[in-house]
Amino acid sequence: MRFVIVTGMSGAGKSSVLKMLEDAGFFCVDNLPIKLVKKFVKLIMQGNNEKVALGIDVRSGQSLEELDIVLRDMKNAGFPYEILFLDCSHDVLIKRYKETRRLHPLSQTGRVDKAIELERERLEFLRKKADVIIDTSHLLIRELKEQIYNIYVEDKKFMNFVVTFLSFGFKYGIPADADLVFDVRFLPNPFYIPELKYKTGMDEQVKNYVLEAETAKIFLNKLEDMLAFLIPHYISEGKNQLVICIGCTGGKHRSVTLTNEISERMAGLGYAVKTEHRDIGKD
């Protein structure tokens, strides 16, 4: 039997994930009172449900603290469970609440930012116990669905650490969520080649032009070495995502090419890798 406790920050996608698990054959229950969790566990152990998901969040109020005791009792009784924690950045959560115009469960006065901070404090003990942490800040719904399917249907190993490689154009500004920024404007610019000017780094001709420069090859090798060194240290410090931005002037040619190349190399090291091109479609 597989018993998954789905929890995390309000607005991070818990309801969506429960629907995904339900579509995948899980028997799902949301917002069950903590005092009933033990009884619920006994019932499902006596039943025929092989896959069960239980949604728990800050709506449980003060009784949420009792969950720690319940989980310890379940562990002592030899009942296996997994905790999936859905996280999201502070700024993205605020944006989501403003867009949907919904009230945060802890927002008595309408101050979403303070409610999010309080919720994060109350849920920290669950985050520390989590078997899987998924940060949905930059995930599309289809990408989240793919991750859920891989973990809970295909039983694939999940990497809690996600590396996002993002190309951008300096003339449009540095991405606000960047952790590391690399400037590749030192490379020959395809923009000044008439037949390449209106193409992008996704085109083979541009890719070949950029990568035939010896400096591009050296840069990629050094960047790969540096990231292979840095990432394990970020992981050991508890970081679960890293946004690495590579920029050129307009974000169409050099940055796109090198972002694609380094993401392919890092994917081979076993990390969960995402690739995005912020400014590729801009004038």
UniProtKB/TrEMBL annotation:
Residues annotated as binding ATP: G8, M9, S10, G11, A12, G13, K14, S15
A GO term, aspect molecular function: ATP binding
UniProt keyword Chaperone present: no
Superkingdom to which the source organism belongs: Bacteria
Transmembrane segments: none
Keyword Glycosyltransferase assigned: no
Binding positions for GTP per the UniProt entry: D57, V58, R59, S60
Domain RapZ-like N-terminal: 1-152
Record domain RapZ C-terminal: where: 162-280
Keyword terms: ATP-binding, GTP-binding, Nucleotide-binding
SUPFAM superfamilies: P-loop containing nucleoside triphosphate hydrolases
One Pfam family cited in the UniProt record for this chain: RapZ-like_N
NCBIfam families (alphabetical): PRK05416.1
HAMAP family in the record: RapZ_like
Name of the molecule in the record: UPF0042 nucleotide-binding protein
